[in-house]
C-alpha cells in the first residue's frame, strides 16, 4: 500500500469514527497532512478546547494527550502510540515540588506544560515555549519557581531581570544535545544563514541565535523573513516542513542528531490502527483515562495559562 492510499483510508475512518486528529509539528510530514489541527504545544491546547468531534486522536507525546483530555473531558482522547512519552515530563514529581512549596510558600510555581497531570495539581500556572514570557511578565508576583526546564527558565529569567526566578535542573534531552561547537561549525559552513533556535537549548547555544522561539515561532519567522538561508536549532522535522513549505529558501539542521525519538514513534499505521480500534470498540486504541478529581485539580493551571496567554 502506498502512503497516499493509507492516508486515504485514515481520512475515511476518521470521518466514520467522528474523530479529530491533532498533530504536534514535530510529527512527520505524512502525519501532519492528514491532521485537522497542527501546531506547537500552545496552539494545540487552545484547539483541543474547541473540537466538535466525539473523539480526539493525538499524535504527539503523552502529556499533550493528557492536556487535551483535561481541556475536553467529555471527549474520548486517544494517543496514537502509547509508548510516546516526554522524558522531561517525568523529571520532577508532585512530592518534590510540594516540599519546595512548603519551604518557599511565597513563590508562584510556573510549570512548563511538559509535566504530568499529577505534578500540575501543585502548580499555579502552566506555560508553553510560545507563551512563557508573556505569562511570566503578566504575573503579579515577582517571586517565581519555574519548572522543569532550566534552559527555557534561564531564557525567561534573562528577559525579566526584575523578577526573582528560581530554577531546578531539568530540561529536554533532545534540545540539550546541541553544542556550541555544532552551531559554530554550521555558521562557518553557511555564513549567510540566520540561526533560529528553540529556547529549550542551552543558554550558550541560545546566545548565538538570531531568533529564539517556539516551533511555530521559528516556522513563522523563517516564512516571513526576506533572508533565504536558515540553520534550524530545533527538532529536525521542522527543517523538513519548512523546506516543503518554502522551496525557494534553504534550511539546514544544526545537527543530524536533533531528533526526538518519542515524537518520531508515531507512524501512519499507528494512526490507522487506533482509528480501527475506536471504530470496533475492541480496546485496541490507547485511550487517556483520568480521574475526574485529577482533571479538576490539574486543569486549573492550564486554564490560567489560556487566560493569561490569550
Ligand atoms: P513547543 O511546541 O512549545 O514549541 O515545544 C516544543 C517541544 O519540545 C514540545 O515537546
Ligand atoms: Fe520532550 Fe524534548 Fe521530545 Fe519535546 S522534543 S517531547 S520536550 S523530549
Give a nutshell description of this structure:
The protein is an alpha/beta fold. It contains 14 helices and twelve strands. The strands form three sheets. It has a four-stranded parallel beta sheet with strand order 2-1-3-4, sandwiched between helices. It has a four-stranded parallel beta sheet with strand order 6-5-7-8. It has a four-stranded parallel beta sheet with strand order 10-9-11-12, with helices on both faces.
Write up what this structure looks like:
With 310 residues, the protein is of the alpha/beta class. The chain folds into three domains: 3-84 and 265-290, NadA-like (Rossmann fold); 88-167, NadA-like (Rossmann fold), CATH 3.40.50; 175-253, Rossmann fold (3-Layer(aba) Sandwich). It is 43% helix and 16% strand. Helix 6 (117-120) links the parallel strand 5 and strand 6. The N and C termini lie far apart (43 Å). Bound molecules: 1,3-dihydroxyacetonephosphate and iron/sulfur cluster. Iron/sulfur cluster (SF4) binds at residues 61, 86-88, 114, 172-175, 235, 260, 262-263.
H/E order of the elements?
HEHEHEHEHEHEHEHEHEHEHEHEHH
Apparent shape = globular
* Total of helices: 14
CATH-assigned fold name of the largest domain: Rossmann fold
The first-to-last residue Cα distance is 43 Å
Count the domains.
Answer: 3
Largest sheet: 4 strands, parallel
Bound molecules: 1,3-dihydroxyacetonephosphate, iron/sulfur cluster
Helical percentage: 40-55%
In terms of structural class, how would the helical and strand content be classed?
alpha/beta
Amino acid at each position: 500500500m502506498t502512503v497516499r492510499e493509507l492516508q486515504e483510508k485514515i481520512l475515511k475512518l476518521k470521518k466514520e469514527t467522528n474523530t479529530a486528529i491533532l498533530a504536534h509539528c514535530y510529527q512527520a510530514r505524512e502525519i501532519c497532512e492528514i491532521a485537522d489541527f497542527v501546531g506547537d504545544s500552545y496552539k494545540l491546547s487552545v484547539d483541543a478546547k474547541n473540537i466538535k468531534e466525539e473523539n480526539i486522536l493525538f499524535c504527539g507525546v503523552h502529556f499533550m494527550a493528557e492536556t487535551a483530555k483535561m481541556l475536553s473531558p467529555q471527549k474520548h482522547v486517544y494517543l496514537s502510540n502509547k509508548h510516546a512519552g516526554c522524558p522531561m515530563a517525568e523529571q520532577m514529581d508532585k512530592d518534590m515540588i510540594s516540599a519546595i512549596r512548603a519551604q518557599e510558600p511565597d513563590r508562584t510555581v510556573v510549570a512548563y506544560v511538559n509535566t504530568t497531570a499529577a505534578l500540575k495539581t501543585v502548580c499555579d500556572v502552566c506555560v508553553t515555549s510560545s507563551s512563557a514570557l508573556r505569562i511570566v511578565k503578566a504575573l503579579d508576583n515577582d517571586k517565581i519557581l519555574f519548572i522543569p526546564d532550566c534552559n527555557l527558565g534561564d531564557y525567561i529569567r534573562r528577559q525579566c531581570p526584575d523578577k526573582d526566578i528560581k530554577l531546578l535542573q531539568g530540561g529536554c534531552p533532545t534540545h540539550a544535545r546541541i553544542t556550541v561547537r555544532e552551531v559554530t561549525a554550521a555558521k562557518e559552513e553557511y555564513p549567510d544563514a540566520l540561526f533560529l533556535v528553540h529556547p529549550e537549548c542551552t543558554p550558550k547555544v541560545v546566545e548565538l541565535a538570531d531568533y529564539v522561539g517556539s516551533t511555530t515561532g521559528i516556522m513563522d519567522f523563517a516564512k516571513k523573513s526576506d533572508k533565504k538561508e536558515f540553520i534550524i536549532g530545533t527538532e529536525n522535522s521542522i527543517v523538513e516542513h519548512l523546506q516543503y513549505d518554502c522551496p525557494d529558501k534553504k534550511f539546514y539542521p544544526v545537527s543530524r542528531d536533533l531528533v526526538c525519538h518519542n515524537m518520531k514513534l508515531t507512524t501512519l499505521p499507528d494512526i490507522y490502527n487506533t482509528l480501527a480500534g475506536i471504530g470496533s470498540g475492541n480496546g485496541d486504541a490507547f485511550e487517556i483515562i483520568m480521574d475526574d478529581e485529577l482533571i479538576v485539580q490539574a486543569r486549573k493551571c492550564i486554564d490560567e495559562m489560556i487566560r493569561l496567554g490569550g
